[in-house]
Amino acid sequence: MGRDSCVTRVTAGVAVGGAVGGAVGAVYGTYEAVRFKVPGLLKIRYIGQTTLGSAAIFGLFLGAGSLIHCGKSY
């Protein structure tokens, strides 16, 4: 595959982290909305907030890890 540039690796890390974090956030948000009996359409808002928050945080951490790992050569 060759050596990718650091920007490409970090971008891929953020994208993968956002996808995984979004999936986990959607499942967790749905579970919490049902568990706490969030009423009506507020469930959708709660699930959306949990999904976006989880995707952003996990994407940030995976992007930072990719950036740290980018400088190392094995």
Describe the structure.
The structure is a single chain. By secondary structure, the protein is mostly helical. The protein has two helices and no strands. α1 packs antiparallel against α2. It is rod-shaped, with a radius of gyration of 16 Å. The two termini are 16 Å apart. The mean pLDDT is 92. InterPro entries: Romo1/Mgr2 (IPR018450).
User: What is the percent of helical residues?
Assistant: over 70%
State Rg. Answer: 16 Å
| Annotation field: number of helices | 2
The string of secondary-structure elements, in order, is HH
Number of beta-strand segments? 0
Keywords:
mainly alpha; 74 residues; rod-shaped
Secondary structure: elements and pairs:
Blueprint: H1 6-35, H2 42-70
Helix pairs in contact: 1-2
Subcellular location: Membrane
Family: Belongs to the MGR2 family.
Main location: membrane
